[in-house]
Design goal:
Chain B: InterPro entries: WD40/YVTN_repeat-like_dom_sf, WD40_repeat_dom_sf, WD40_rpt. Chain B: WD repeats lie at residues 15-60, 194-235, 280-323. The complex is a heterodimer of chains A (857) and B (323). With 857 residues, chain A is mainly α. Chain A is built from 40 helices and no strands. Chain B has 323 residues and is mainly beta. Chain B has a domain at 11-106: Thrombin, subunit H. In chain B, the strands form seven sheets. Chain B has a four-stranded antiparallel beta sheet with strand order 1-28-27-26, with no helix packed on it. The longest helix of chain B is centred in the middle third of the chain and has 4 residues, at 154-157. Chain B is globular and about 50 Å long. The model of chain B has no long low-confidence stretch (mean pLDDT 88). Classes of the chains: A mainly alpha (857), B mainly beta (323). The A-B interface holds A 512, 514-516, 519-524, 526-530, 665, 667 and B 4-9, 241-242, 255-256, 263-265, 267, 270-273, 275-279, 281, 320.
Chain lengths: 857, 323
């Protein structure tokens, strides 16, 4: 009926409208299936996607009619059809008719319209046949790859976007709708049907298939560009951005990236396409796209292939890569900074950014307040990034920027070495070593002493830029997807055979049995390490041995035996103990003796425990003496704390069970002991008596602990007050109020431990008062470490002082403490501090509570 | 109560009288005419023959010019051979109270490597030669048959430290750099070598019946290995408390192996898996040598262990003998 030529445009419009209206009427009212089919068949030729199949009517007007139908009637017609969906109505069509005549309108029409209509229907429907029908249509839509056609269609609209006006606004609105519908489809469907949907709407599958569609579209784009035709990637990149923004970057790039890598390796045009897609994403999405890419790209060279020089023109990209990802974010994977810095260094156009970033990084790294307030992970991330930057510098850059970098390093080193955290100090040392080594290849090398472990080794590895791992690693998944199953099966079978082999071997008798067993070994306990020197037996010899600077073995044996000698409490110990402690305090580990620190420490503690009066006098006096380094002072504090704790323990537990009192073994095997037999009959009698005796109650099963005099109570004050006395005195070598806050903090910890050790001693109350006074003075110290130490001291006071004193004599102090702690909980910038304060408050609360409830009773 | 292992035994008896450190001891097998005896070589150049019944020195042979004797070994009836640091290898006739030097072979070696003898057919002696060489000497004709030299790799192997015959054509050499090498003396080629130790190999012993050998060195490992067509393969190892072994000896019944430690202790191990069995302490200084006797009738067919030390004493022990 469309072959009448010469009909005007208006007529066509009219006739199309008429036709549509008529068939709608039929479809709505008729119950006859053949009539319904005929009505649909009438419209079918007008379907835009069906053009090819209706070759039998190739006339001009038909084309115009199709256009007219597509532009004005298609959406409404689809809506009408959807409205008709019901079990009854659809049942009027045979299955093949339904597919041929009905579904085709949705699947082969104008895809974006069809998609939007279906989506909105699903959105507004409740569980019904209609909903199910729409869902199955959507599923078909996805399975038949219509999504890629949809996206591809959007790539082909170029002209509309450039000219302003209603057309482009319309498009923008349409795109916005489409993007939202595509990206949120799985969520919406899940909301509607509560997980009873088909597997292809599960996010993982849906987005993987979406990624496949994207890849198909990109291939088309690539072909188009190759044929030097125009097309737009704007929609694709917007879609990509939205997908990533909604948190599905991982799924998408897991599929896409291997393909990208493979494709960009050989074809520059592909690099352009990828770069346009990635960089073209809307600014707000760029971060999530890059975040995922940086984690997934295995080598920085690929980064350059995918991004090109886009960073130089795109401000947002530049900000993200040189600023946000390096300074504000923190990643566990070293891959991220490696990718960023490698990318920056990969092209001469971008190289200047490496140096610039390095300088910024060093600034932040060396900032004392940053070191103090950022978390360790963040700081380690900075350090890693710096090391990676160093690995990429070339000779020219090194010489050119040497002085600036060195200066930044030096200022940074200071605050690192000052840090109370060992790990932060080590980061500083490693960075300094690496930086000086890189900048000055000749000349003296800086080297620090630090414990080398897995982390430090990893850090130093970062100095070498990673090599191209080749494409096999990443692109192997592309092929292996199908092969995977077979291989696992093969492995399984081979495993099985191996097992069989193993069992077969086991079953063969082992003829090489250990026939050494028939020879009974003799006692070999006396087979110990021999040493060339005599073990000192007297403390004076031991002291001399420790003095022997050039005799390694003598020093080592003396150090090993020192604790044992002191513990055996010889009579002359009082005279020599100070000398011994002096030697030990000044002893340096020049020979790398095993367990040097432990041996030295335990010897000093032993001496302090045996002669507490002299020792405490010595330690507390020396602590404020001038010529000591921080380590020695820390040692003194440690010894005081350990000795106080040991002294406060009841004596039985502290007697060392050393090898000295090893029970002597009889040399000859004794004949059966007559007394054993005697006991034997006595046992029998006892048992008989027991069985005949009736008992009403049993006494304590364990004997009452025997009371022992507290060894610490008489000397507790000597440990405490002299140490507290002059903490604010300032010397050249020690300034506890200022730089040496580490010492101040450790001293507070030690005082807390001493107070705790003096628990139950009468002097504990005075000590608590003095300690609380000190805490009050220092309560808003700027260093986190000191504040933590203060809170430790306070909680020790709370736990050690009898609780009735807390609510009577010490009531005012406790109230002040409470206010201070509450203040810390509310205002302290450090998380740990806040936590500690809350805990301390809880301890205080529970102790006071218990006391008050006991009183009231 | 857990079973306590027995205390290690004390020595059976001790031979005193050596004028200097005892460098080597060797049992002299008994014949139907003569009872078994013990040979010892000392640092002052004397070779002593000890009577094991009277426990006294029977003969003193002084032929090495006051230079220390490294090695002494019986050859055949009434014949013994000794190697001294004066550079000579002497053979002696000591039968029926004689004490004559029968031959004198110059060996020109300045090393501490002990010789070894192969008594099958015409006796062959492996002796250290010049330039890190090991010479094979035919004792009858007094001629050097061949020299074995790890020529290209002198640096890699260093000097030979100890030698041990497996049979006429196969020889084991332990090198300064820690390798144990298996040589074919007839073809003069090194069949295999293995880096068994981190320090110089000090001693080797080989048991023909079990086809396995053991080596000790200046480090703290005792290594047990098998010799097959394929070469040397490590089969067991044992770690010592104190490093350094100067001699090892496998008992003839392949049950135990003894080591002479620098820490003045004798250690006994099971031969199968080198399981540590006993630590015998008597000596006060480095032990230089250990040797097991064949079953001796004087001691109820017990196999006696003899050890010679730097402290001039020779201790004799009876362990793991059926009582």
């Amino acid at each position: 009926m469309w072959n009448c030529t010469g009909i005007g445009m208006a007529d066509i419009k009219l006739s199309v409208r008429q036709l549509v209206r008529e068939s709608q009427n039929v479809l709505a009212s008729s119950r006859d299936s053949s009539e319904l089919c005929r009505a649909l068949e009438d419209i079918l030729p007008l379907l835009p996607g069906k053009k090819a199949s209706v070759k039998d009517a190739p006339d001009m007007p038909q084309g115009e009619a199709v256009e007219e139908f597509g532009a004005c009637h298609y959406v409404r017609f689809l809506e009408f059809l959807v409205g008709q969906f019901s079990l009854d109505w659809c049942g009027r069509f045979a299955a093949d008719e339904r597919q041929r005549l009905l579904d085709v309108f949705f699947l082969d029409g104008i895809h974006h319209h069809a998609f939007l209509v279906l989506c909105s229907t699903v959105k507004h429907s409740s569980p019904s046949f209609k909903q199910n029908k729409c869902l199955s249509l959507l599923e078909d839509f996805l399975l038949r790859g219509r999504m890629s056609d949809l996206i591809w269609a959007q790539c082909c609209v170029l002209s509309d976007l450039t000219d302003s006006g209603s057309q482009s606004t319309k498009h923008r609105i349409l795109w916005e709708q489409l993007l939202t519908a595509i990206v949120t489809l799985p969520d919406r469907i899940a909301n509607k049907v509560q997980g009873k949907c088909s597997a292809c709407f599960f996010p993982k599958q849906y987005f993987t298939s979406l990624a496949k569609d994207l890849l198909v579209v990109l291939h088309k784009v690539h072909n188009q560009l190759k044929a030097s035709k125009d097309c737009s990637l704007l929609f694709v990149s917007q879609l990509m951005g939205r997908i990533c923004l909604n948190g599905h970057a991982d799924t998408t790039f897991t599929f896409l990236l291997p393909h990208f890598v493979k494709l960009t390796a050989v074809d520059f045009l592909w690099s352009r396409v990828c770069s346009r897609v990635i960089v073209g994403t809307p600014e707000r999405c760029l971060e999530s796209v890059l975040d995922c890419l940086l984690k997934k790209i295995p080598w920085y060279g690929i980064m350059s292939r995918l991004l090109g020089d886009a960073l130089l023109s795109n401000k947002k990209l530049l900000f993200l890569l040189t600023n946000k990802f390096l300074l504000l974010r923190c990643y566990n994977q070293e891959l991220v900074p490696q990718n960023i810095i490698g990318y920056l260094a990969d092209s001469p156009n971008r190289r200047h950014l490496v140096v610039k970033s390095l300088k910024t990084l060093l600034d932040v790294w060396g900032d004392s307040s940053a070191v103090k307030h950022t978390s360790y992970d963040q700081h380690a991330y900075l350090t890693k990034t710096i090391l990676i930057c160093l690995g990429h510098l070339n000779q020219q850059e090194k010489t050119q920027h040497k002085s600036v970098l060195m200066q930044k390093l030096l200022s940074g080193m200071h605050c690192h070495l000052n840090s109370p955290l060992v790990k932060v100090r080590r980061l500083g040392m490693i960075t300094a070593e690496a930086l000086t080594k890189t900048l000055e290849t000749e000349g003296p090398k800086l080297s620090f002493e630090y414990v080398k472990d897995e982390e430090s080794r990893l850090l130093l590895l970062l100095l070498v830029p990673p090599d191209d791992p080749g494409m096999d690693q990443i692109t192997k998944d592309v092929v292996e997807m199908s092969l995977g199953e077979e291989e696992t099966r093969e492995e399984a079978t081979s495993n099985q055979t191996e097992q069989e082999d193993a069992t077969g071997q086991q079953s063969t008798p082992d003829d090489d049995l250990d026939s050494d067993d028939d020879l009974e070994p003799f006692d070999m306990s006396e087979d110990v390490k021999t040493s060339q020197v005599k073990t000192p037996v007297y403390i004076r010899d031991c002291i001399e041995g420790l003095h022997a600077k050039e005799n390694r073995e003598l020093t080592e044996t003396s150090l090993k035996v020192a604790e044992k000698l002191v513990r055996s409490k010889p009579d002359y110990l009082q005279e020599v103990c100070v000398e011994l402690m002096q030697v030990l305090l000044h002893l340096e580990d020049v020979f790398e003796i095993d367990d040097f620190t432990v041996l030295r420490h335990s010897a000093m503690v032993a001496a302090t425990v045996q002669c507490p009066i002299q020792a405490s006098q010595y330690w507390t006096a020396e602590f404020y003496d001038r010529n000591y380094n921080i380590r020695q002072r820390l040692d003194m504090l440690q010894v005081l704390a350990a000795a106080a704790q040991e002294l406060s323990q009841p004596l039985e537990e502290t007697t060392p069970s050393s090898g000295l009192q090893k029970p002597c073994r009889p040399l000859t095997r004794a004949s059966p002991n007559p007394s054993e037999e005697a006991e034997h009959w006595r046992d029998i009698v006892q048992k008989r008596i027991k069985s005949k005796t009736r008992r009403f109650a049993k006494g304590r099963s364990t004997p009452a602990p025997t009371p022992v005099a507290n060894r610490f109570a008489p000397v507790a004050g000597r440990f405490f007050f002299p140490l507290l006395k002059s903490f604010d005195s300032k010397m050249n070598t020690m300034d506890m109020i200022g730089d040496d806050f580490l010492l101040l903090g450790r001293m507070l910890f030690t005082l807390g431990i001493v107070v705790h050790a003096a628990q139950h001693a009468p002097i504990c109350r005075q000590m608590a008062v003095s300690l609380l006074e000190l805490v009050w003075v220092l309560r808003y110290h700027t260093e986190v470490f000191v504040r933590q130490a203060l809170m430790f001291a306070v909680s020790m006071v709370i736990l050690s002082v009898p609780s009735h004193l807390l609510v009577s004599d010490l009531q005012d102090e406790m109230l002040e403490c409470k206010l201070w702690l509450e203040d810390i909980v509310g205002k302290d910038p450090n998380v740990e501090c806040r936590g500690l304060a809350a805990q301390t408050l809880m301890v205080l609360g529970s102790v006071v509570q218990k006391e008050l409830s006991a009183e009231s009773r | 109560m857990a079973h306590q292992p027995p205390r290690p035994p004390d020595p059976l008896f001790v031979l005193r009288g050596s004028k200097d450190a005892v460098n080597c001891v060797k049992f002299y097998p008994s014949t139907h005419t003569e009872k078994g005896r013990l040979l010892s070589g000392s640092g002052c150049g004397e070779v002593r023959v000890w009577n094991l019944e009277s426990r006294r020195t029977e003969t003193v042979l002084d032929g090495h010019d006051g230079k220390s004797v490294l090695w002494v070994q019986p050859i055949s009836n009434g014949q013994i051979i000794s190697q001294g640091r004066d550079g000579n290898i002497l053979t002696w006739d000591i039968g029926e109270g004689r004490r004559d030097v029968t031959t004198r072979l110059p060996s020109n070696a300045l090393t501490f490597c002990k010789c070894d003898i192969c008594n099958q057919g015409s006796p062959l002696v492996a002796a250290p030669g010049q330039d890190s060489e090991v010479c094979i000497i035919d004792l009858k004709s007094e001629t050097v048959i061949c020299g074995l030299k790890a020529d290209k790799d002198i640096k890699k192997f260093g000097m030979p430290m100890c030698v041990k015959f497996i049979d006429e054509s196969r020889l084991l050499i332990g090198y300064e750099a820690g390798q144990v090498a298996l040589w074919d003396t007839s073809a003069r080629t090194m069949l295999d070598n293995k880096q068994l130790h981190s320090e110089a190999v000090m001693c080797l012993d080989y048991s023909t019946s079990s086809k396995r050998g053991v080596s000790g060195s200046a480090d703290d490992k005792l290594m047990c290995w098998t010799v097959s067509e394929a070469g040397l393969t490590l089969s067991a190892e044992s770690t010592l408390t104190n490093p350094g072994i100067s001699d090892v000896c496998i008992r003839q019944d392949d049950k135990i192996v003894a080591s002479a430690g620098w820490d003045s202790r004798i250690r006994l191990f099971g031969w199968k898996k080198l399981k540590p069995l006993a630590v015998l302490s008597y000596h006060r200084q480095t032990i230089h040598t250990v040797d097991f006797s064949p079953p001796l009738q004087e001691f109820d067919s017990a196999q006696i262990l003899a050890a010679g030390s730097k402290d001039k004493h020779i201790s004799l022990w009876s362990v793991y003998n059926p009582s």
